[in-house]
């Protein structure tokens, strides 16, 4: 059900609890409120267009005054969006339909989000077409292509991604392999096998003799540590060793 009525008795279950599974937009309204009646069609249209992805809950502030006071409702219509039990967005007043649509768009996955979540090659390719700078689409696609030996295509997949450790690391790996000045076959084999710690160790060991390629080696190591996570015990020690090898 896309549009429901809620009360103080059902608010916890229908809004707070439900929002852990599906975003819930609460429309605080009253029968006497003219702007509320103006806003209702836009809210219901937006909710119905996203059936299964968001729920619109209507709460009569006159009949549920304690709840209205708890959420500090001072003017109506007041609209609050809940995710994971918390208010994540809100507005007051009768907004135009286009702004209501934008409000709902911010609560549900975009087409690119859905494609990234699907994760197959065709979906990732489409996601990169729609949003070339999305690292969560470009990097997995580049890895798939690299695993097949399609190196130029892998590089092209991440060429528009900026400020991302994984994309930087992948570009640097390709540059190091193309240059062929360092013997990093074992390190990259370990990386491809998911042996991230071994790959990082081998790359750090190669740094003293890396010469002009040091920065590319560093980027690959940083990408590995980023993938492991800031709090990973190995990553903390490896960052120290990386700094020592560089400086």
What global shape is seen? Answer: elongated
**CATH classification class of the largest domain:** Alpha Beta
Question: In what order do the strands lie side by side in the largest sheet?
Answer: 1-3-2-4-5
Relative helix content: 55-70%
Give the structural class: alpha/beta
CATH superfamily of the largest domain: Glutaredoxin
Q: What's the SSE pattern? A: EHEHEHEEHHHHHHHHHH
Q: What is the strand tally? A: 5
Main sheet makeup: 5 strands, mixed
Give the distance, in angstroms, between the N- and C-terminal Cα atoms.
Answer: 61 Å
Rg to the nearest angstrom?
Answer: 26 Å
Overall domain count? 3
Description:
The protein is α/β, with parallel strands linked by helices and 247 residues long. The chain folds into three domains: 3-105, Glutaredoxin (3-Layer(aba) Sandwich), CATH 3.40.30.10; 111-161, no CATH class; 163-247, no CATH class. It is 56% helix and 11% strand. The protein has helices at residues 11-17, 34-49, 65-70, 97-105, 111-118, 121-130, 135-147, 151-157, 165-179, 185-192, 196-206, 214-228, 233-246, and strands at residues 3-5, 24-29, 55-60, 78-83, 86-92. A five-stranded mixed sheet has the order 1-3-2-4-5, sandwiched between helices. Helix 12 (214-228) packs antiparallel against helix 13. The longest helix is centred in the first third of the chain and has 16 residues, at 34-49.
Question: Which features does this protein show?
Answer:
5-stranded mixed β-sheet; alpha/beta; 3 domains; about 55% helix; about 250 residues; Glutaredoxin; 13 helices; single chain; 5 strands
